[in-house]
Design goal:
There is one protein chain. The longest helix is centred in the middle third of the chain and has 21 residues. The chain folds into three domains: about 270 residues, 3-Layer(aba) Sandwich (Rossmann fold); about 70 residues, no CATH class; about 140 residues, Rossmann fold, CATH 3.40.50.920. About 40% of the residues lie in helices and about 10% in strands. α4 runs parallel beside α6. The protein is built from 24 helices and 17 strands. The protein has a six-stranded parallel β-sheet with strand order 2-1-3-4-8-7, sandwiched between helices. The mean pLDDT is about 95.
Length: about 550
């Protein structure tokens, strides 16, 4: 209720979007960082013509409803991203604006701004208090993300009450210090003032803008507006009735007069906006056919036609490595090979480039002055970097992936072509034995080499032991039952999982008859050569565990 007037001006007069095609690539992005105000977003989507039905809105916050209390992402109905953890949406919006600026630098040509959209974000007091907002907004100001426009819902109320008791920052000066364009003291209920602020923000192309909106939480609720009750509690039937009278809204619940519904419907304007962009892109295709094809491939999320061949060459080339190598060095070797075959490849580091080996060969560093690059130095902003990358990736369909690398050198494991293929299935048999195994050993990462040594010794001594390398349990769990059974036969009850970390998560693979060699305590600092024996991660100890399980 407090931000409704601002939303009306933004969505009615400025936001470039097409409800009939929510995935249009050059639409403006809208992020609701203060996600507890999600009913405002649902109302906007319904009124402007997105495929979100009134029945869905009536079942707000009910099990199975699309209208959750904190929606995360459903682009088909117009939800770009909306966050529960405050500040996260603001940081994600920074990533969206970063992606826009990178794409514009790569594809736009004079007279052909095919990437020309804004990222708008609503944020509240909680977003400003969360530390992630500092990291992300400092980064946005440094890199001059002029297409990012944030609206600060400055109502001075949070769940516990008036924030003046615990939040007295001078937010305007703070953001000026970040090199943002700050527009202070905007009346959140004056449409002319709001529109003027948005136009001022759009005119500032070299800096992100913060529009500081003076608002009243629960605006229009006579006894609860401006109080914490309007934040975390239902208004109640009596207060809603009084609010209707206060706001001069005489209609029944969920009834929108036809005249108002027609004024809000944005489908014709949205289709016209997208059509104008398509006509621009058609001219772009004639002038820059190669760039146009590349843009279409990327926005369709398709890999290059040569990707399969290129990937196979990478696997073949790196598979020939025989010397022990830290896996972070192996990672850089992979990046060096992959990057030339993937033009959209983008990397970076939070002030750890020499340590984590993320800067691939021929990488071009992005700077505030030049965005035509593919590598970014985020500074010491790990949290902000990670959140922003959610926006850069525009929310990957299958979720993000985490690769964990070692400092210490590890022995190379020789694999057959079939084993290399099976590695993509999350878990596979690395070393097998004759006949039915007496024990299955499961390892991942740096523990594989230790276990391989122990399993080879056990088999040489006459035991029948299988070693399973499991680089990703989630991927393995997603395989069909027949494959999982072929790797981890149910008949083999004696199982040992080896993990130089917490044992949690491994018990479902070893069962009650198995064991997990791990660390259920805080670790220690030292060299791997000292730490691994200290915690029992040696071939001798793994061999001892095998003998006890098979004994």
């Amino acid at each position: 209720m407090g931000m409704a007037d601002i939303a009306q001006v933004l969505w009615g007069d400025f936001l470039k979007h097409n409800p009939a095609h929510p995935e249009w690539v050059d639409r403006d992005r809208f992020v609701l960082s203060n996600g507890h105000a999600s009913m405002l977003l649902y109302s906007l989507l319904y009124l402007t013509g997105y495929p979100l039905g009134l029945d869905e809105i009536k079942s707000f916050r009910q099990l199975g409803s699309r209208c959750a209390g904190h929606p995360e992402y459903e682009l088909k109905v117009g939800i770009e991203t909306t966050t529960g953890p405050l500040g996260q949406g603001l940081a994600t919006a920074v990533g969206m604006a970063l992606a826009q600026k990178m794409l514009a630098a790569q594809f736009n040509k004079p007279g052909f701004n095919i990437v020309d959209h804004y990222t708008y974000v609503f944020a509240g007091d909680g977003c400003m208090m969360e530390g992630i907002s500092h990291e992300a907004c400092s980064m946005a100001g440094t890199f001059g993300l002029g297409k990012l426009i944030a609206f600060y819902d400055d109502n001075g109320i949070s769940i516990d009450g008036k924030v003046d008791g615990w939040f007295r920052d001078d937010t305007a000066k703070r953001f000026e210090g970040y090199h943002w364009h700050v527009i202070p003291n905007v009346d959140g209920y004056n449409p002319e003032t709001i529109a003027a602020a948005i136009r001022s923000a759009q005119a500032e192309t070299s800096r992100p803008s913060l529009i500081m909106c003076k608002t009243i939480i629960g605006y229009g609720a006579p006894t609860k507006q401006g109080t914490k009750s309007a934040h975390g509690e239902a208004l109640g039937a009596d207060e809603v009735a009084r609010a209707r009278k206060e706001l001069n809204w005489p209609y029944e619940p969920f009834v929108i007069p036809d005249e108002l519904a027609a004024q809000w419907d944005h489908r014709k304007q949205g289709q016209a906006a997208e059509q104008a962009w398509k006509e621009l892109f058609a001219r772009y295709q004639k002038e820059f056919p190669d760039l146009a094809r590349e843009f279409e491939r990327r926005t369709a999320r398709e890999l290059p036609k040569t990707w399969g061949e290129h990937k196979a060459q990478v696997v073949e080339a790196l598979g020939a490595q025989s010397k022990p190598q830290a896996t972070r060095q192996s990672s850089q070797a992979v990046l060096d090979f992959l990057a030339p075959g993937l033009p959209e490849f983008f990397g970076g580091s939070a002030d750890l480039t020499p340590s984590n080996n993320t800067q691939f060969k021929n990488a071009v560093t992005i700077t505030p002055e030049s965005f035509a690059g593919n590598y970014m130095h985020y500074g010491v902003r790990e949290f902000g970097m990670t959140a922003a990358l959610s926006g850069v990736a525009a929310i990957e369909h299958k979720g993000p992936s985490l690769l964990v690398f070692t400092r210490q050198a590890l022995p190379q494991q020789q694999r057959t072509p079939q084993q290399k293929s099976d590695a993509a299935r999350g878990g596979y048999v690395l070393i097998d034995c004759e006949g039915t195994a007496q024990c299955v050993v499961i390892a991942t990462g740096s523990e594989v080499g230790i276990c391989a040594e122990a399993v080879k010794a056990a088999n040489a001594a006459g035991l029948r032991i299988r070693l399973v390398s499991m680089p990703c349990t989630e991927v393995f769990d997603a395989q069909d039952e027949a494959y999982r059974e072929s790797v981890l036969p149910k008949v083999v009850k004696a199982r040992l999982a080896v993990e130089a970390g917490a044992t949690l998560g491994w018990w479902k693979y070893v069962g009650t008859d198995g064991r997990v060699l791990g660390i259920d305590r805080f670790g220690a600092s030292g060299k791997a050569a000292d730490l691994f024996p200290h915690f029992g991660f040696t071939a001798d100890n793994v061999g001892r565990q095998i003998r006890e399980l098979t004994g």
